[in-house]
Specification:
The structure holds three protein chains of three kinds. Chain A has a two-stranded antiparallel sheet. Helices cover about 75% and strands about 0% of the residues of chain A. Chain A has twelve helices and two strands. In chain A, a hairpin with a 5-residue loop joins strand 1 and strand 2. The longest helix of chain A has about 30 residues. By secondary structure, chain A is mostly helical. In chain B, the strands form four sheets. Chain B has a six-stranded mixed sheet with strand order 6-7-8-3-9-10, sandwiched between helices. Chain B is an alpha+beta fold. The longest helix of chain B is centred in the middle third of the chain and has 18 residues. Chain B starts with a strand and ends with a strand. In chain B, a hairpin with a 2-residue loop joins strand 17 and strand 18. Chain C is an alpha+beta fold. In chain C, strand 20 and strand 21 form a beta hairpin. Classes of the chains: A mainly alpha, B alpha+beta, C alpha+beta. Chains in contact: A-B, A-C, B-C. At the B-C interface, helix 6, helix 7 and helix 8 of B face helix 5, helix 6, helix 7, strand 16 and strand 18 of C.
Amino acid sequence: MNKTVNQKAWFFVLPVVILVAFNALIPLMTVVNYSMQETFGDNTFFWSGVRWFEQILQSDRFWASLGRQLFFTFTILFIEVPLGVAIALTMPKKGPWVSVCLVLMALPLLIPWNVVGAMWNIFALPDIGLLGKLLNSIGFDYNYTRQTGDAWFTLILMDVWHWTSLVVLLAYAGLVSIPDAYYQAARIDGASNWKIFRFIQLPKMKRVLTIAILLRFMDSFNIYTEPVVLTGGGPGNATTLLSIDLVKIALGQFDLGPAAAMSLIYFLIILLTSWIFYTLMMRNEEQ
Amino acid sequence: MAKITLNDLRHSYMPNPQSPADYALKRLDLEWRDGGAYALLGPSGCGKTTLLNIISGLLIPSHGQVLFGEQDVTRLPTDARNIAQVFQFPVVYDTMSVYDNLAFPLRNRGVPEAQVDKRVRTIAEMTDLTGMLRQRASGLTADGKQKISLGRGLVRENVNAIMFDEPLTVIDPHLKWLLRSKLKELHQKLGTTMIYVTHDQTEALTFADQVVVMKDGEVVQSGTPVELFEKPHHTFVGHFIGSPGMNIIPCQVSGGQVHVADHKIAVGNAAKLGSRNGMFELGVRPEFTSFAAAGLPVKVAKVTDTGRNRIVDTRLGNLSIKLLVENDAVIPSEGAHLAFDPGHSQVYDNGWLAE
Amino acid sequence: MTLELKNVAKRVGADMHIYPTDLRFERGSFNVLLGTTLAGKTTMMQLMAGIQKPTGGEIWFDGKDVTRTPVQKRNVSVVYQQFINYPNFTVYENIASPLRVAKLPESEIKARVGKFADLLRLTPMLGRKPSELSGGQQQRTAMARALVKDADLVLLDEPLANLDFKLREELREELPRLFHDRDCIVVYATTEPTEALLFGGNTAAMQEGRVTQFGPTGEIYRRPQDLTTARVFSEPPMNVAEVTKDGNQFSLDGVINWHATGNLTALPDGRYTFGIRPHHVTPAKPAGESVKVNGAVKVAELSGSESIIHFDMLGNPWVSLTAGIHPYSAGQKAELYMDVAHGFYFAADGKLIGM
C-alpha cells in the first residue's frame, strides 16, 4: 500500500540531516579538498590537482598495504561466514536455552574494541599470556611480537573471536524466520540434513547473509583499533593494514595531501566492491 | 497402502493435563479402510490439524496408538511412515525448477532416474504443470506453487496415505473448483488413502467418501456426506453442514407428540421419544421445509437470491426459519404457512438426536 | 451524496492497473466489486478512498472534486482482509480510536462504542485485547471500528476471506443489517459470486483492471453483457462451447442441435460462443424445452444435498449442478438435459447478443 505524500514529514528529518551534514558531509568535502592541494601545515594551500593520487597509486607502500588488507579481509570472511552459519544452525530455535545462547553470542560484540585488542595482546604473550604460553609449551615456537606468521595468526584469531557472533546473530535471525512447514515438508520428502540446508535454509538466509557479508567486508576493510593495540602494525609493517598506514601518513608525517588522497581511494575501493557484491546478490535473487 | 486405525487417541499440548479442557484432542477411536477418501471437517480450533499431524508423525500423541495396518507407528518419525503431506501454504524449493521440485521426494529415496522421469511427467500432466516443468519454481503464482506442493505429495507411489491440510486456502474460487474436482479425479485414479482437513463443508462433502465432523477436540459424527446431510446426530452437525444450515426450532414434547407453537409436527424419530417431556429442539433443513396451505404460521422477512434458487428467511416470533424455493416459485406476502418433511424432521435432546 | 469516478485510471510504470473507468455510487447503496484476485479491486478501492492517487481522471464526492484530497481529509473507513486492530489496545479502545482522533467528548464516545459493540455482539469482550479473541471476533472489532466513525464511504476489502466457512455465512447475513439504516456508501470487494448475489445491491464485475459491467446485481447475473462478466459472475464456472447457427438451428459440433426461438432467429448465421450455467444442465428433464446431452463423466462430486457432475462435452469440460444424489462413476456415460432457454449467446468479440 502506498503511503500518503505529506510534505510535513521532511521537518522531522531536518535535525538528523544537519547532524549528518556536520559530522560527515563537511569533513568529507574537506578531505576531497585536501586531496587536491599541497600544504606545509601552516594553512597555506597550493593546488596540486591529481598529483597526490598519482603518487599514491604508484607507491609500493600503498600497494603493499592494500595487498595485506585484502588478504586479511578475505581470510576472515572465508572463516567467519561459514563458521557463523554453522553455529547459528546449532543454536536452539525455541525453549529456555534460546536467550542464554543469544546473550553468550552477543558478549564479544559488547566489548570496546581497544579492550579487545588489549585482551588479546596480553592473552597471546609468549611468556605470560595463557594462549602464548600454552602454544609454546605444546611445542610451537610462537611469538607474535617477533614472527610475522604468528602475528597474522593472532590477528585473524582475534577478529574471528570478536566478530563471528555478528554473523551468527544475523544468520540465526534468518533461520528463525523460516516457517515450520518447510522443515516438515522436507522431512516428508525424505530430504537429508544436508539437502535441507542446501535447498531450504541457505536460500531463505540469502538476504541476511548478504547483509552479514557486506557488513563484515566493510568493517574489516576499515579495521584500525584492534590491530593497532595488538601489534601496532608490526612486527615491522607485517600487519600494517590500510587504515593503520593511512594514520601513519596523515598523523605521523602530517602529509595531509597524500593522506586525504589515500582516504578517498580507500573510500572508493570499498564503495565499488560493496556495490558490485550487492548488485550480484540482488540480481541473483530477482531471477 | 494400509488400513489406518486410531486407538484411544488423546492429545494435550500441556505436560500435566488436569481437566478435559486441557486436551486438544479428547478420546478418539477411528478406523479407516485402505484407499478411501476421508475428510476432517470442523471450525478453527477443533483439533483437526492436531489429528492430522499425529497421523503423519509430525506430532506424537500424549496417549493412545496409531496403527498402519497391523504396525504401531505411534512413535515412528514422519519419514519412516511412508506418507505424504500437502500444507496450507505452498512449500516449494525456490532454487529448483518445477521438475526438480517434483522429482525431489523420489530422488531422496534413490529411485532410478528413468523411473523418476516417468513419474514426474505423469504427475505433471495430472496437475497441469507439464508446460512449466523447466521453469524456476519461485516464479510461479500462488496456485501454481500450490500445484507443485500437491504434485510433490502425489509423486511417490505406494504411500500409505496422503494428507491435505486445508490445501486450497490460497487458491482463487474459480481455480478452487477445478483443483477440487481434480483432487477427486486423482483419488479415483490413484486409489491411495487421502485424508483432507478443512473448515469448508463444500470441499469436505464433495471430496470425501467419509466425513468426520469435529468440534472442540471430539468427533461429533462420522459418516458419508449423505448420512451427515440427511440424519445429523447432533445439532452442531446439522448447523455446520449445509448452506444455510439446519433450522433449529424449540418444540414441546409430551406423550410422544411434538408441538411447535401449538401446531402438531410429524417427526422422523417420534418412535424414539419415549417418555420425554418438556422443551426440546426440532431440527429440519431448509431443503425439507416448504410453503403450504396450512401449517406453522410465519412472516416472510427476507428473500435472498442465490442465482440458482432463493433462500426465504421467515420469522416465527423472534426465531428465524429458512427455506429454499425455486426461482420462479410464488412467495406468499401475507399469511405464509410452513410444512416440514416428516422423514427429515428430527427431535434433538440436549443437542443429540433423540434415540 | 454520491461518489463519482470520471474516467479514473491508474498507470504504474508501463502497466495499466486500472483502465479509464466511469462509476457512480448513490447514497445508501451497497456496491460489490466482484473479480478474481488480480482484477484490480483493491487498487480501485484505494483510489476511491484517496490512499492512491489516480494517474488520470477525477473523483467527485457529493458534488466536490476530491481527487487531490488526501485520505485523512476524506471521511472514509476501511476494513481489511487481515484482521487489523491495534494490538495493544483493548476492544473498547480499538473501537473508540477514531472517535478519540476526532476529539469527541467521553460520554459520546462511550455511548457510540456501546452501540456498535452491541450491534456486532462484542459487548462481553470489550475489556480484552485482540490477541485474546478468535478470528471472527477480531474482524468484528475491525468492523465496529470502521462503522463507529460514521463515515460517508465504507470500504470492505474481502473482509471475510480469512474466516471459517460457517463464520463467513453468519457475518454475511449480519452485514446488510449493519448498513441497513445508514446513509453511507458501502463498497465491498470479493472474489465469490455467491457473496455478491447474497448481498444484492449493485455489482461491478471487474477483470484485469477493467469494470466490465456495473448495475443491480440480479440484472448483471441474469443479463451479463459480455462473456467476461458472465464468467466472472458464475460459480461453478460457466459452461461454454462454440456453436454454429445455420438458418433456424444452433448446432454444437453438428452433434447436438436445437431450434432458435424468439429474437434468436433474427441473428445472422455464423459461429457464436454459447454459455449456460451448470444448474441448467441436469440429469432430470426440466419442465419445458430442453436438449439432450451425452457425455462421459470425469468425476461426480456428491455433497449430501447436491451433485456436481464433471463431464466431457465434445471436448469441452462441462459441469452439471443439480439437487439430489446422482452417483456416477468415472467413465460412465451420462444423459443430461440442457435448459437452452437459459443459455447465452456471445459474439466473437465477447458481447452478449442473444439469450
